[in-house]
Amino acid sequence: MATAYISRTFGTPTDEDKWTLSFWYKKCGPTSGVRVLDADGGGNEGNISFDATTGKLNFYQYQSSLDTQLITKNYYRDVGAFYHVVVIFDAANGTPADRAQIWVNGARVTTLGTATYPTTLYSQINKSGVVHYIGAKGSTGDKYCDGVFSHMNFVDGSALAPSYFGEADATSGIWKIKINPDVTYGNNGFFLKFEDRTNLDLDSSPNAHTFTTTGTITPTYDNPSNNFCTLNPLGSDLAGGSLTLGNNYVQFASDSTYRSIYATLGNSTGKYYFEGYVQDDGNATNIGIIDTEQNTGSNQDYTAQTRGYSYNEDGQKYNNGSGSSYGDTYASTNIIGCAVDLTNGAIWFSKNGTWQNSATIAEIGAGTTTNAAFTGLTLGERYLYGPAISGKTNAKWKMNFGNGYFADTAISSEGTNASGIGSFEYDVPTGFTAWSTKGFNE
């Protein structure tokens, strides 16, 4: 949703001073500033945001002077999972500390750095005639969202507990989503699922409110029920490079130093597939996997590690600091596929749908490793392998871990995918699935 936002002018509320906002959000960076909901009233303002410097949650309302403000002490910097945030506002509540509440993943946040509770019946959020913006600060063009929103509910006239929107899993205890909450939305209430890829501002509540989208929002299959892998800004030193577009577009620095970036998810078993679009090969770049235990520090190439494996733009395969002949060279605009078999300990690579080293999609699906790029991977519960890229001299990659987009560029045609999880440019070998939590569960 970077450089884009959704907006709607609210009408007469059921109860201006009582409402609940619930949303799921996957951050792009540890300190990404994002305005989740902003009610811009020409001098008066209400907003819910993640602080740009600290990652703290902030709920703020102002009318001539500060009326309400909660700022958490906790830092919310996880870029690999969805946060479930519930903000409850009930200005008439007899207990002052219950008039404004923040809940994260089913637990109320009580460690607050700032706690100013409302003393008057006033709310800028849910006010009639006020434009409400999702994913940006008013129309000023800043504090855009560069992460992923999912299942945003706004309930007008009710102060609802997080249990209406989420619940603890009976087996793991992990907080999980309720995809169809049983609530009464009130006049201004809405339910944005963000799941219709052709109509991302569709209100699925009975109100069916009309929203306006400004800019271009990139759709994704990434959601709280199936969390997809992305590249990870934590533990990676790009030093002059950048990671944007939902952490699926990496640009390496212009200098001649190899640097590496890793993924948010790793596993020790199963069969997985992902793709990378070469935006710029930089004449020096690799794509592959590494055991996360061997993730390197700054200014290093992950392929120097004993359990780091790659396909280089020069056509060679690299492991443990050594390269050997493997396949075709590749360059800008090429798409590289990677099939990782953590059951048989093998890796294959494709270029524009053609498997290298004379491998075939049928033999890969059958578990035949004769023409694999690498075999004999060290396997076991302690070895968690995840996708990795290294590069220098302005190398750039756009990744598709199953979202059907290379960062912000849609695939041109969809290959077959036996697992039914994710959407890829080329055919996925039988038995292989997307690098996502649902794929892991297979």
Provide a descriptive summary of the structure in words.
- This protein has 442 residues and is mainly β.
- The protein is 2% helix and 37% strand.
- It folds into 2 domains: 210 residues, Jelly Rolls; 211 residues, SPRY domain (Jelly Rolls, Sandwich).
- An 8-stranded antiparallel beta sheet has the order 10-6-5-4-3-11-1-16, with no helix packed on it. Strands 18, 19, 21, 26, 27, 28, 30 and 33 form an 8-stranded mixed beta sheet that branches. Strands 17-20-29-22-23-24-25 form a 7-stranded antiparallel beta sheet, with no helix packed on it.
- A hairpin with a 1-residue loop joins β5 and β6.
- The two termini are 30 Å apart.
- The mean pLDDT is 93.
Number of strands: 33
Top CATH class of the largest domain: Mainly Beta
CATH homologous superfamily label of the largest domain:
SPRY domain
- Distance from first to last alpha carbon: 30 Å
The SS-based structural class is mainly beta
**Can you name the CATH architecture of the largest domain?**
Sandwich
Shape: elongated
Helix content: under 10%
Strand order of the largest sheet: 10-6-5-4-3-11-1-16
Tell me the Rg in angstroms.
Answer: 23 Å
The total tally of domains equals 2
Strand content: 35-45%
Mean pLDDT: 93
Helical segment count:
2
Biggest pleated sheet? 8 strands, antiparallel
User: CATH fold name of the largest domain, please?
Assistant: Jelly Rolls
- Low-pLDDT runs of 5+ residues are none
